[in-house]
Design brief:
Elements: H1 8-21, H2 44-51, H3 55-62, H4 71-80, H5 85-94, H6 111-119, E1 125-129, E2 134-137, H7 139-144, H8 158-164, H9 175-192, H10 197-209, H11 211-218, E3 227-234, E4 238-247, E5 255-262, H12 265-272
Antiparallel strand pairs: 1-2, 1-5, 3-4, 4-5
Helix pairs in contact: 2-3, 2-4, 4-5, 5-9, 9-11, 10-11
């Protein structure tokens, strides 16, 4: 259940448990001893040995007993649990071993970035912050997705639209993958911005109102996906496949510029036929 703020001690405990339980002892050259293992994955003592810490230390971490590991211990845990880069960054955020950004969080696009989004036409493009709030977009993106000008500001959020907007529920062919990647991004953003109450409230709304989001949130996947492919069912022109690229402005590291390119000739033809909204 989502709380009013990030309880990093409880989240750290749950995250460490889930990462430990997903590991296969055989990958570490350990006997499986399936009959004697009450839970999946590695035992606490095995993680402790791999990380070079005491068993009691791992127990206290997993029981949320208020420990704050040093950067060296966090790195050792990340190696022991074989965390991928996004999970490692998440662990550092949870333990407050990475500096937090105390600047005011962006809710509007800088004029230069808004102009850049417009100048990227005819490629569909939009600018979002770490919450997935849509701050700027060009006409091509509005024709492909929605006319954002007609939406209340509170609904100009890519995840909110995907989960809550009825006509968007079947818009993505591989909907679960799109939602899963979005959840994993929001979890990373949540840990990196514990001061962002608006983000915490948004996640709480999703957990309460959408069972799919709640299920995926409980899996504690962490990933920031910078590029990939999406296939969309557009109501006017049919199937459109795009490759997307996500770029981060150096002076605005909590914002991302998302650019779509047609994945094939048929999709480009469909993009060219999109009617104005």
């Amino acid at each position: 259940m989502m709380t009013r703020s990030v309880d990093t001690t409880q989240e750290l405990a749950a995250f460490l448990r889930t990462r430990r339980e997903r590991l296969d002892p055989q990958d570490f050259g350990l006997p499986s001893r399936r009959q004697s293992r009450r839970t999946p994955g590695l035992r606490r003592e095995e993680v402790a040995e791999l990380a070079g810490v005491s068993i009691d230390y791992i127990v206290r971490l997993e029981q949320a007993r208020g420990l704050r590991p040093s950067a060296e211990v966090v790195e050792a845990l990340a190696r022991a649990l074989r965390l991928v880069p996004d999970e490692r960054a998440y662990l550092f955020d949870l333990t407050q071993q990475r500096p937090c950004n105390t600047d005011k969080l962006a809710t509007t696009a800088a004029p230069s970035l808004a102009r850049l989004v417009a100048d990227l036409s005819p490629l569909p493009a939009m600018l979002m912050n770490h919450r997935y709030d849509i701050l700027a977009w060009n006409g091509e993106m509005a024709r492909l997705l929605l006319d954002f000008d007609d939406l209340p500001v509170s609904q100009r959020n890519a995840m909110w639209l995907c989960l809550m907007r009825p006509e968007m529920r079947d818009f993505y062919v591989d909907r679960e993958r799109v939602v899963r990647e979005g959840v994993a991004h929001l979890r990373a953003a949540w840990a990196a911005h514990p001061e962002d109450q608006a983000l915490t409230d948004l996640i709480a709304e999703f957990i309460t109102r959408d069972q799919e989001f709640a299920r995926l949130w409980d899996e504690r996947d962490v990933r920031v996906n910078g590029r990939g492919r999406k296939v969309m069912r557009h109501p006017d022109v049919g199937s459109i496949a795009v490759h997307f690229e996500t770029l981060t402005p150096l002076q605005d590291p909590d914002q991302v510029l998302v650019i779509y390119r047609a994945a094939d000739d048929e999709s480009q033809s469909a993009l060219d036929r999109l009617p104005a909204r």
